[in-house]
Amino acid sequence: MPPRFSIANILVGPQGEEFLRGFIHRSYPKGSLISSGDIDENGILVVMSGRLRMFLISEDRELSLFYFGPGDMFCLHSGCLIEAAEPSELKFTDLATFDKKLRENPQIAWALISILGRALASFLRTIEDLMFHDIKQRIANYFIDHAHSSGRPSPSGVEVEIRLSVEDIAKSIGSSRQATSTAINSLIKDGLLVRQGRGVYAIPAIERLRSFR
Amino acid sequence: MPPRFSIANILVGPQGEEFLRGFIHRSYPKGSLISSGDIDENGILVVMSGRLRMFLISEDRELSLFYFGPGDMFCLHSGCLIEAAEPSELKFTDLATFDKKLRENPQIAWALISILGRALASFLRTIEDLMFHDIKQRIANYFIDHAHSSGRPSPSGVEVEIRLSVEDIAKSIGSSRQATSTAINSLIKDGLLVRQGRGVYAIPAIERLRSFR
Predict the structure, then answer these.
(1) What are the sequence ranges of the domains in chain A?
(2) Nearest-CA neighbor of A138 among A190, A179, A102?
(3) CATH 2.60.120.10 at B8-106, yes or no
(4) Which residue of A has its CA nearest to B63?
(5) pLDDT tens, A7-60?
(6) Which residues form the HTH crp-type domain (chains A, B) (predicted)?
(7) Do A30 and A85 contact (CB within 8 A), yes or no?
(8) What residues of B are in contact with residue A58 (Cβ under 8 Å)?
(9) How far apart are CA A106 and CA A99, in angstroms?
(10) What residues pair up with B156 in beta bridges, in sequence order?
(11) How far apart are the first and last CA of chain A?
(12) Which residues in chain B have Cβ-Cβ distances shorter than 8 Å to A128?
């Protein structure tokens, strides 16, 4: 749904200069913490250059949620940590100023829709990973077994013809149709499987599918 | 960040009639499945009336991700299931038509930003629930213990004064400062705790905090 739209080129032009007037500029070396995600924090950041990582730390692991690049903007009070994955140049402003600037530059709205849509897709993949990790592993093994027994080389990778419905695959791996369908779609979104046609899949990189966490 | 904005009132006016011209109208009884979340599904839905639930089903549980109300719109290829939580009237169109209509009615972009922002916050709460469930329970117990030993009634609920930093709370429950901070913020976002001031919290409903999953 989000229109493909980047404001990276707008931001460096005269219109960007006007939009970013009054913003505070800060530089961050690689690895430095930009936001501790405190919900009391207030404001908006705009990435001028570099790459940011949004993440959460729980008791036993760290979870990357989303990466930002040039032209991306986000709020600081999301509750997530944000660090510089690369040396980064950022602009900051408060919410009220950002809201005003946004209304003066309505085309920036498309950029926001694009970022929010990308973040939403990325968050959903994280939820699927957390919920469906076990079954995704079993399906990965199921496809690897088929690739070894009956796979054929194809331009998209090893092609596997499974003459079974999702319901049949679900029975083979001992799960429900719905969970199996979601998990297969999730592997497709991860780029580990490609659906070529009805019951025909390609595995672009068997090693990547095997080492799937 | 998402500006508070609803297009529910625009959709029922003359502008809405123009915007929704060519959309397909469908009615759904309560409990009926609207989208199976197949990533091959294509299109946009707009809620005219009723309430929709977006959810995922894994092997051992069902997880509600987001609720839609009148004026909300979303894509069908998210990979999530969508059902009618109440009897609902919807409008459907394909992506290309929606994109065109959106460009003709740019103020609809604000509605999209608002929905995407709300969905993002809701998805993040789900991730926190999945990642931080154990530690949230321990913190809930910690606050309930304090409420029983030293709580005072206040207009916001039982007020608890913890003369300790987050770092000290983390040590008491045997966790890291960062995980404890995220988990406390998550309980605040859930409405189970209210931060009154430095080290002072209120518990609006002890029973709700106790029965926290």
Answers:
(1) 8-106, 133-210
(2) A179
(3) yes
(4) A131
(5) 666 777 777 888 898 899 999 999 999 998 776 677 899 999 999 999 988 877
(6) 133-207
(7) yes
(8) 131-132, 135, 179, 182
(9) 10
(10) none
(11) 29
(12) 56, 79
**Given the structure tokens 């030993």, which residue do they identify?**
B149
Is residue B177 classed as helix, strand or coil in its secondary structure? Answer: helix
Q: Which of A75, A110, A185 sits opposite B109 (nearest CB)?
A: A110
Instruction: Name the DSSP class of A175.
Output: -
In CATH, B132-210 is 1.10.10.10: yes
A202 touching B, CB under 8 A? Answer: no
Tokens of B190: 């859930």
Q: Which of A59, A116, A189 sits opposite B117 (nearest CB)?
A: A116
Task: Record the tokens describing residue A117, joined without a space.
Answer: 């849509």
Q: What is the ipTM, given to two decimal places? A: 0.75
* Cβ distance of A128 and B36 shorter than 8 Å: no
Q: Which two tokens stand for residue A158?
A: 């090893």
CATH topology of domain A133-210: Arc Repressor Mutant, subunit A (1.10.10)
Q: Which residues of chain B form beta strands (DSSP E)? A: 24-28, 33-35, 44-49, 52-57, 62-68, 73-75, 81-84, 88-93, 152-154, 157-161, 194-197, 200-203
Give the B window 131-160 contacts with A, CB below 8 Å. 131-132, 134-135
Which distant-in-sequence residues (6+ apart) come within 8 Å of B88 by Cβ?
Answer: B27, B28, B34, B47, B48, B49, B50, B51, B52
CB contacts, 8 Å: A185 with chain B: 37-39, 79
